[in-house]
Specification:
heterodimer; A: about 60% helix; rod-shaped; B: mainly alpha; Rna Polymerase Sigma Factor, Chain: A; 2 domains; 10 helices
C-alpha cells in the first residue's frame, strides 16, 4: 500500500489528493503526502488548485428554485387544486398509484359538479329544452297558462291527435291551392298562345305619293286590319280564360275548409 | 424512523399533506442537481418536475431497507438525468459549437483570481457551470453529488451503484479535471 511508503510518487500523491482534501488520510499517509508536496512543486500547485476549487464549490449556496415549481409539481402529481383559501385537492391522487385510477375511486362529494360545468353539457341541455318546447307546442300545451288538465295523458293524446289532423289538413289545402294556381297559370298561357302572333302585321299606311289616284286600295290609317272579326280573337280568348279562372276560384272557395 | 420515511408511509396511506411536505423539503436539492448537471434553468425546472412525477408513481417500490430516502431520490434523479443526457446528445453537440465562440469573452473579467475569491462575487458559479458542461457525465455527476450536493461516499456509492473505489476515483479525477478546466478559463489556483 502507498500508505506504508515513506516517499510517495507524483501519481500516488495525485491519487490520494481527494482523501487529503476530505481529511480521510491516516496519520502516516498524511505525513507522506505532506512530505511529497513539500518537495514537489507540481504536486503542491495541483493540490492548491484543486483545494481552492473544492473550497469554491463548497462556498456556493444552493440555487433557489423558481417559486412556481413546487406548485407545478403538486399539480402534476396530486392534481390541479383550488385556490389557496381551502388548499383542498379537487382530484386527489395517492402517491404510488396512477392518478386516473384514484380519480375514479376517490371522488369528492361535489366532484360531479365539474362534469355539469362543461360547455358540451350546456349545449346539450339547451338543445333538449328547445326540442321539448317544440314538441309541447305541437301537443298544444300552453306554457304561459299551464293547467293540470293539459298534462293528463288523455288530454295530451287528444291534443296530439287534433294537431296531427290539423297539420294534415293544412298540408292538403296547400297542395290543392298550389294545383289551382298551376291550372290558372296554364289557362293564361294557353290563352296567350292562341293569339296568332305569327300573323303578318299590316304595313303602316303609306303616305300618298305624288301621282297616286283615289282608286288605290283603302288602308286603315291606324294600321289595324280591315276585317273586324280578326281583331276580336284575342279579346275572346282572354274573356274565356277569365271565365275559367272565375269558375276555378269559385271551385277553390267551395273546397276551402269550414 | 427517519422523518422522510415517516412521510413516505403517510403518502402511501393517501395523505396528500405528507406528499406536499416531501416535495417542499426536497425540491431545492433536486432542482440544484438538475441545474448543475444540465446548466439550463428551464431544463432543470422540467427535469425536477419529471423527477417528482416519477417518485410519485414509484413511491410504493421504495423501502427504507434499501437506504435513506434521500439516496433513493438522488438515484432516481441521477437516472433521469443520464436518460436526458443521452436523449439530448445531438442538441448538446450543436450548442457546444456555439458556446466555443462565445466563451472567451466571458472568461476575461475573472482572470487571475482564486476560485474561492470569485465565488464571493458569484462568478465562479458561471465558470463552474461552463466547466461542468465540458466534463464527462461520470466525473460530472460524482463531483456534483460530492461537492455540490454534499453526499458522503457511501450515499454516492448507493446512488451510482458502483464500488467505493470507483466512487473515490471518479471524485478525485473529477476534481482534478474541474480545476484544470477552470485554470484554462483563467481562474488560477493561487
Amino acid at each position: 500500500m502507498a500508505d506504508d511508503h515513506t516517499n510517495w510518487t507524483c501519481a500516488e500523491t495525485e491519487e490520494r489528493l481527494s482523501d487529503f482534501l476530505d481529511g480521510l488520510l491516516a496519520p502516516d499517509g498524511l505525513a507522506a503526502f505532506e512530505r511529497h508536496r513539500a518537495g514537489c512543486a507540481n504536486c503542491a500547485a495541483l493540490s492548491a488548485r484543486v483545494g481552492a476549487t473544492v473550497s469554491g464549490l463548497h462556498g456556493i449556496a444552493l440555487l433557489e428554485e423558481p417559486p412556481e415549481l413546487v406548485r407545478a409539481i403538486l399539480d402534476r402529481t396530486i392534481g390541479t387544486r383550488k385556490a389557496d383559501r381551502d388548499a383542498r385537492p379537487v382530484a386527489s391522487a395517492k402517491p404510488g398509484v396512477p392518478a386516473a385510477q384514484l380519480a375514479e375511486s376517490e371522488g369528492g362529494w361535489f366532484d360531479w359538479l365539474s362534469a355539469i360545468m362543461q360547455p358540451q353539457f350546456a349545449y346539450g341541455a339547451l338543445a333538449v329544452m328547445v326540442s321539448a318546447l317544440v314538441v309541447s307546442h305541437a301537443l298544444g300545451i300552453e306554457w304561459r297558462r299551464p293547467t293540470v288538465a293539459e298534462l293528463q295523458p288523455d288530454s295530451i293524446y287528444r291534443a296530439a291527435n287534433r294537431q296531427g289532423h290539423l297539420i294534415y289538413a293544412r298540408g292538403t289545402k296547400i297542395v290543392s291551392d298550389s294545383r289551382v294556381v298551376y291550372e290558372i297559370q296554364s289557362a293564361f298561357e294557353s290563352a296567350s298562345e292562341s293569339v296568332p302572333e305569327s300573323a303578318p302585321r299590316p304595313k303602316p299606311a303609306a303616305r300618298p305619293t305624288p301621282g297616286q289616284t283615289e282608286n288605290a286600295p283603302h288602308v286603315n290609317p291606324n294600321g289595324g286590319p280591315r276585317d273586324p272579326s280578326r281583331a276580336s280573337r284575342p279579346a275572346n280568348a282572354l274573356a274565356r280564360a277569365a271565365a275559367e279562372t272565375a269558375s276555378l276560384i269559385l271551385g277553390v272557395h267551395s273546397r276551402s275548409l269550414p | 424512523m427517519e422523518p422522510d420515511n415517516q412521510l413516505v408511509q403517510q403518502c402511501l396511506r393517501g395523505e396528500n399533506s405528507a406528499w406536499e411536505i416531501l416535495v417542499q423539503t426536497h425540491t431545492r436539492r433536486v432542482y440544484n442537481m438538475c441545474y448543475r448537471f444540465t446548466g439550463d434553468r428551464h431544463a432543470a425546472e422540467d427535469l425536477t418536475q419529471d423527477v417528482f412525477v416519477k417518485i410519485f408513481r414509484t413511491l410504493g417500490s421504495y423501502s427504507s431497507a434499501q437506504g435513506a430516502f434521500t439516496a433513493w431520490m438522488t438515484s432516481v434523479t441521477r437516472n433521469l438525468l443520464i436518460d436526458n443526457y443521452r436523449r439530448t446528445k445531438h442538441d448538446r453537440i450543436t450548442d457546444s459549437i456555439d458556446d466555443d465562440a462565445a466563451s472567451p469573452v466571458e472568461e476575461k473579467p475573472s482572470a487571475g483570481r482564486r476560485p474561492d475569491q470569485i465565488a464571493e462575487h458569484g462568478e465562479l458559479r458561471r465558470h463552474l457551470q461552463l466547466a461542468l458542461g465540458k466534463m464527462s457525465p461520470e466525473l460530472r455527476e460524482a463531483v456534483i453529488l460530492r461537492d455540490l450536493q454534499g453526499l458522503d461516499y457511501r450515499e454516492i456509492q448507493d446512488t451510482l451503484s458502483v464500488p467505493e473505489g470507483t466512487v473515490k476515483s471518479r471524485i478525485n479525477r473529477g476534481r482534478i479535471e474541474l480545476a484544470r478546466l477552470l485554470e484554462q478559463m483563467g481562474v488560477r489556483g493561487q
